[in-house]
Amino acid sequence: MAFTNKVIAITGASSGIALALAHHLAEQGARLSLADIAVEPLNKLADELRASGTDVLATPLDVSSSSAVDAWVTATVTHFGRLDGAANIAGIGMDFSSVEDTPDEIWHRVIAVNLSGVMFCVRAQVRVMQRGASIVNATSLAGIRGRPGLGAYVCAKHGVVGLTRTVAKEVGERGIRVNAVAPGPIETPMLQALLDSTPSASSGQTTSTYSTLPLKRKGQAEEVARIFAFLLSDESSYTTGAVMTVDGGASA
């Protein structure tokens, strides 16, 4: 199998795309270091995977803490002996608010988790990775285009794109690849929370995207997980600094 004995770290592992990726990589023989701030679902996932024979390290983690991220990556290498790949998917949801109405606390929290959290993970990961390793960061359709009413989220996800492309150039000569995946509307708890939120003029403009997709449907977490897996694998050995859209044609 493509990931037999490879050590892969995943943040946000207990739900959505990251959860689908954890199951997919486990089926492909990977050894997994899983992290999430939600302890109970994280432990449930770890128990399920261990029962099927997967070597799993499960760590409660708030990615907005650089010291906690450093400790997690250190514990991963201590447990497994190395780190071959990482999928940085942890993030928090979106609240509809124009930029002029965005409270300081919302701005700081979204940036702290969705951008700084990715930077802390990437920084710790490249410090311990060897030639042939791969990092894949989660950005979004909101990371490559403007989205009314989602200013903090959009800025954070655009930042992930810039971070990905910059680090890809910094570590390329070491044989480490860094890419990003930009999902569109995917059926996940985060998207459902967005759709269930209080309607507003800006939310109407944003969610109208979902009814005008060329493929005429929302995507499934498993469909995005397979793209993450491709970029983590040796099958994408000449791909770095790329942002792959998985959005049903929304950005076409």
UniProtKB/TrEMBL annotation:
Gene3D superfamilies: NAD(P)-binding Rossmann-like Domain. It holds the Pfam family adh_short_C2. Coiled coil: none annotated. InterPro entries: NAD(P)-bd_dom_sf, Sc_DH/Rdtase_CS, SDR_fam. The keyword NADP applies. CDD domains: SDR_c (cd05233). Keywords: NADP, Oxidoreductase. The keyword Oxidoreductase applies. Belongs to the short-chain dehydrogenases/reductases (SDR) family. PANTHER family: DEHYDROGENASES, SHORT CHAIN, ESTRADIOL 17-BETA-DEHYDROGENASE 8-RELATED. This is Oxidoreductase. It comes from Aspergillus pseudoustus.
